Amino acid sequence: MAEGRFTNPVVASLAGIKDFFTRQQLASRLTEADRADGKTVMITGANSGLGFALAVNFARRGAKVIMACRSQIPEAGEKVKKLSGSQDVEMRYVDLSKIGTIHEFVQSFVRDGITIDICILNAAVALPGPRKTESGQDEFFQVNYLANVTLTLLLIKHSILELKMESPLSRLIFISSDSHQGATYIDYDEFGRYFEYGVSKAISNYSYFKLVLNTYATELSRRVNSGQVRLSIHAICPGPVHSNIVKEAPWLLRMILNGIFWIVFRSPAKAALPVVYMALSPDYEGSTNEYLHMFNPKKMDPKVYEPAEGLKLWDRSTRLLKDIDPSHMDYLEQEF
Ligand SMILES: NC(=O)c1ccc[n+]([C@@H]2O[C@H](COP(=O)([O-])OP(=O)(O)OC[C@H]3O[C@@H](n4cnc5c(N)ncnc54)[C@H](OP(=O)(O)O)[C@@H]3O)[C@@H](O)[C@H]2O)c1
Fold first, then answer.
1. What is the pTM of this model?
2. Is 301's pLDDT higher than 80?
3. If 53 and its partner were Cys, which of 262, 272, 273, 316 is the partner (CB 3.0–4.6 Å)?
4. Where does the pLDDT of residue 6 fall: very low under 50, low under 70, confident under 90, or very high at 90 and above?
């Protein structure tokens, strides 16, 4: 059975306390000189928490910001404009639990001739149990993992996220969690299958799907960048963030977790800083498949780097998508 590092949310949150006191090795490397003028930044789940703080930060640094969201349109965008002082902010609708809306979202970029320089895949859920999506998957699996496969492959297919031969390369950043370390190998009996499970499995899903996501990011980087680096693909854990991530937890648990969040978790604005660093700094120009845990470079779980794991995950993910999204095969069969 697939298992993440934590099955108890209080233990998981308390692990965040250690991060709170961890020295941030590269924190001074992000400065006001790291500007985003002329760059287009797309952030999923940008109406709340970390994603919202990222939108404000990038807009302040001069980027055109596209907030990819399923709710709070247009209010969240208006707030970002107000807080950043930039008018170059827009919101586009996407519900990552519905594959059709991902296609419509990408088509809107094609229609409007927009390309993206920095793509931050931030949206995620922490659900208390299984919930079936329209296409028959578990929402946890669909939003935290599979939607990111569909979205990245479509963005690359339509050259919205371009593979470049010259600097500056575009950057694709997966928001992960260091809790992925120690999750089990990917379980293909469970993969993409909807089934009933209890709350401890739901909690464990969170860190487990981050391992799956990091394995995909690594395999995508391997495929896209086999000859030379053409797209910088990285993963980062922002550390503990005081956000809305546990909004669906039972109320008592939510009260306890929010108490811990309030005392020892970082504000989204602070947690956003290492992500902005990885997205803008010349330190990451021309590199790929790096991982940061806050401002600290680190290795991901060793399983993430196993080529056989990446290959199998790629194969199973594209096969599954061909089954549940049969009218759109071309993006799944592209060669890089
Ligand atoms: N909080 C932490 O301590 C922590 C630690 C490590 C990593 N992270 C990671 O940081 C990222 C941001 O999380 P957060 O803590 O900022 O939580 P958050 O405030 O709950 O933000 C999650 C975002 O994802 C969006 N989202 C969820 N389901 C979606 C769907 N079906 N379609 C489109 N958007 C959807 C949410 O939109 P709605 O508002 O519409 O639900 C929200 O904007 C996540 O990847 C999380 O795993 C968080």
1. 0.97
2. yes
3. 272
4. confident
* Domains recognised in the chain with CATH numbers: 9-325 (3.40.50.720)
- For the chain, what is the radius of gyration of the CA atoms? 18
> Which H or E run includes 297?
strand 296-297
Angstrom distance (rounded) from CA 28 to CA 296: 12
Q: What is the DSSP string of 245-273?
A: TTTTS-HHHHHHHHHHHHHHSBPHHHHHH
**If you take atom 5 of ligand 1, which residue's CA is the nearest one?**
240
**Nearest-atom index, ligand 1, CA of 206:** 47
| Spatial contact of 192 and 320, defined as CB atoms under 8 Å apart | yes
Q: Which ligand 1 atom sits closest to the C-alpha of 125?
A: 27
CB 208 within 8 A of CB 183: yes
pLDDT digits (tens, 9 = 90+) for 181-238: 999 999 999 999 999 999 889 989 999 999 999 999 999 999 999 989 999 999 999 9
Residues 6+ apart with CB under 8 A from 177: 206, 207, 210, 237
pLDDT beyond 80 at 283 = yes
Q: Which amino acid is at 21?
A: F
The token pair at 130 is: 């299984």
